Amino acid sequence: MSVRAPLPIRSLALFSLLAALAGLCALSVTIGSRDVSWSEIVAGLAGHNDTIGEAAVALRVPRTLLAVIAGSALGLAGAVMQGVTRNPLADPGILGVNTGAALAVVVGVAWFNIVSTEAYVWSAVAGAGCSAVLVYALGSVGRDGATPLKLALAGTATSIALASLIIAVVLPRNDIAGGIRSWQIGGVGGASYDRILPVLPFMAVGLAISLLSARQLNSLALGDDMAAGLGERVPVARAFAALGTILLCGAATAACGPIGFVGLIVPHLCRLLVGLDHRWLLPISALGGACLLLLADILGRIIARPAELDVGIVTAFVGAPFFIWIVRQQRIRQL
């Protein structure tokens, strides 16, 4: 794979993803448990809800918006994580960041009775940050420091431990167990603007930090010694980029629950399109993540119609075989 794909190919990939995203948004508003006519779609988009069809369209608009925002955040966070750790298996779920965010939210609900989306977001960001620091500290133990293999193992172990703590917190609380279990699956159903607006500032800051870290990630890809020789302060560059992923993952988890594999699948596919240059890879991964999560939501509505499958289930079905394929393709020294 070349470091940088030719400009026409990168431009074509960008416009193709934008077109795909627009088409998926149209499908998301159209497809559901109830068929809607073109006139109902237009009226629903205009804010009318006089008929059942118009009301259905009006409800699908924030759902579509949340899927786009959360998918963009997870796709971008995965690309940044893989760049920071130089680990092809890095993913907000595999490295335990999403699980840390979920544990913080569950503890907040169970012990501190938090109910607002703002409290969810702050709790999730704090949990994601603590989990990221813990995984990196565990992965850094030993002579060779934080190798990709040790980070993957530390993240997996941390994720399992934190998931067990979530069960321990929820188990004695029958009053919240049902809602927490449903939220843990990960989904965008029931989205509303009140649920979306509080996460936007965190998403915007995380997006800006992540995109601004593109040049540093290109330097880190050459190795720590080479990056330092180019004038980069390696620990600062890693911490700056990691902050963006923590904000993105925390906000996405607070709004949708922990959704796995988006941050693993999307960066790998996008590298095939645009190469390894993070100045292109990061925005393309954001678009790819939005497309993937939106497509998963649409498929979840079609497969179980008139019921629905949450996007977390659909992405797990797709992501688990993809994860196995990546593990088989990568040599141990590259992990």
TrEMBL record:
Membrane topology category: Multi-pass membrane protein
Q: Which SUPFAM superfamilies match?
A: ABC transporter involved in vitamin B12 uptake, BtuC
Task: List the Gene3D superfamilies.
Answer: ABC transporter involved in vitamin B12 uptake, BtuC
Primary location recorded for the protein, binned into one broad class: membrane
Entry superkingdom = Bacteria
The record's InterPro entries line, in alphabetical order, gives: ABC_BtuC-like, ABC_transptr_permease_BtuC
Name of the protein described by the UniProt record = Iron ABC transporter permease
Protein's UniProt keywords contain Transmembrane helix: yes
Any keyword Amino-acid biosynthesis? Answer: no
Tell me a Gene Ontology molecular-function term this record carries: transmembrane transporter activity
Which keywords has UniProt assigned to this entry? Cell membrane, Membrane, Transmembrane, Transmembrane helix, Transport
Q: Which GO terms describe its biological process?
A: siderophore-iron import into cell
User: Which family does the entry's similarity section mention?
Assistant: Belongs to the binding-protein-dependent transport system permease family. FecCD subfamily.
Cellular component aspect of the GO annotation: plasma membrane
CDD domains the UniProt entry points to: TM_ABC_iron-siderophores_like
TM stretches of this protein: 64-81, 93-114, 120-139, 151-171, 196-214, 235-260, 280-299, 311-328
